[in-house]
Amino acid sequence: MSERAERKVITGKVVSNKMDKTVVIAVQDRVQHPLYRKTVLRTKKFKAHDENNSCNMGDVVEIMETRPISKDKRWRVVKIVEKAVIV
């Protein structure tokens, strides 16, 4: 029997929690432009499953790749790394 591969884990910021049990995570990545060699900030958004609706806007969370949960959801929230400061 073969062993399962390690699942991807990424860290990002919650940009929306308006859906039930779903949050949208924005992950920023710095990449170098292939021709001009300038560093560009690239943002990618992922929908992640939040079972307890515990995430709020601005929280920094860790998400892990998982089986398809719905049409767009392939990630789930593992833990909240940093809670957002409410002013």
TrEMBL record:
Keyword line: Ribonucleoprotein, Ribosomal protein, RNA-binding, rRNA-binding
A cellular-component GO term for this protein: cytosolic small ribosomal subunit
Pfam family, one: Ribosomal_S17
Entry keyword annotation includes Ribonucleoprotein: yes
InterPro entries named in the record: NA-bd_OB-fold (IPR012340), Ribosomal_uS17 (IPR000266), Ribosomal_uS17_bact/chlr (IPR019984), Ribosomal_uS17_CS (IPR019979)
PROSITE patterns assigned: RIBOSOMAL_S17
Lineage: superkingdom: Bacteria
GO BP term, example: translation
Family as reported in the entry's similarity comment: Belongs to the universal ribosomal protein uS17 family.
Classification via PANTHER family: 40S RIBOSOMAL PROTEIN S11 FAMILY MEMBER, SMALL RIBOSOMAL SUBUNIT PROTEIN US17M
NCBIfam families linked: PRK05610.1, uS17_bact
Subunit organization: Part of the 30S ribosomal subunit.
Protein name according to UniProt: Small ribosomal subunit protein uS17
Annotated source species: Heliorestis convoluta
